[in-house]
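Action item from last meeting closed. Structure (218 res):
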């Protein structure tokens, strides 16, 4: 499973990239607004830090506008993945941009049929939003399960399932269990994945016992 981080904060991305576990980055207009910096500069900086796909979302909602903006974003760096919304215009733009050789992430996916359309439009990634479905009392993980079944039924559909709107460490575990190809994870959740109280207790004990031996490895 690939790990992407869901943020536009370059300093945080640098810190997480140092773990060697980061396969890519996703941003969206809300995350860009949160950092309050120039969008294209931020995307350029992120692409220099992380060699994997970096999703940058178009602002236009019409086909021509999305294609034009997508081309500009793709020109920033080779690893830019153009993000378009799951609308008819977005799907058309996806088809055009992937035919030109660009990576495309079709976002705001809330149903299995939408994911089927994204795959048929040649999307590199589809982003089902788990947390936002949970927010309205539905089961976000069930959507990932359904998309997995559909994509596995048709091997010619090569779109990767990018589990998005992840809010908890359990979302990450469940997405991995049901076969999401990628999880895009908020920094705090990514950092929390390593935590376990028994690891901390066990390590403290090992360090104390090692000191008692009086030995050194180096
Ligand atoms: O990048 C899109 C997605 O991850 C947003 O998550 O928490 O705003 O629903 P959230």
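Sequence:
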């Amino acid at each position: 499973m690939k790990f992407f981080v869901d943020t536009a904060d370059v300093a945080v991305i640098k810190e997480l990239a140092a773990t060697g576990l980061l396969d890519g980055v996703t941003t969206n207009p809300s995350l860009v607004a949160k950092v309050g910096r120039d969008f294209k500069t931020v995307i350029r900086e992120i692409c220099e830090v992380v060699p994997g796909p970096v999703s940058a979302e178009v602002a236009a909602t019409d086909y021509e506008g999305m294609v034009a903006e997508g081309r500009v974003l793709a020109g920033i760096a080779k690893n830019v993945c153009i993000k378009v919304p799951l609308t008819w215009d977005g799907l058309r733009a996806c088809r055009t941009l992937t035919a030109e050789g660009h990576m495309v992430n079709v976002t705001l996916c809330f149903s299995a049929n939408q994911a089927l359309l994204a795959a048929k439009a040649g999307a590199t990634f589809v982003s089902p939003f788990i947390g936002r479905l949970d927010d309205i009392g539905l089961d976000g993980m069930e959507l990932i399960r359904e998309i997995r079944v559909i994509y596995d039924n048709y091997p010619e559909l090569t779109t990767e399932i990018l589990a998005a709107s992840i809010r908890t460490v359990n979302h990450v575990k469940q997405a991995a269990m049901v076969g999401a190809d990628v999880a895009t994870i908020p920094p705090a959740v990514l950092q929390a994945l390593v935590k376990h109280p028994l690891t901390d207790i066990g390590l403290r004990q090992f360090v104390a016992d090692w000191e008692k031996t009086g030995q050194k490895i180096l």
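Note appended to the action item: The first strand starts at residue 2 and ends at 6.
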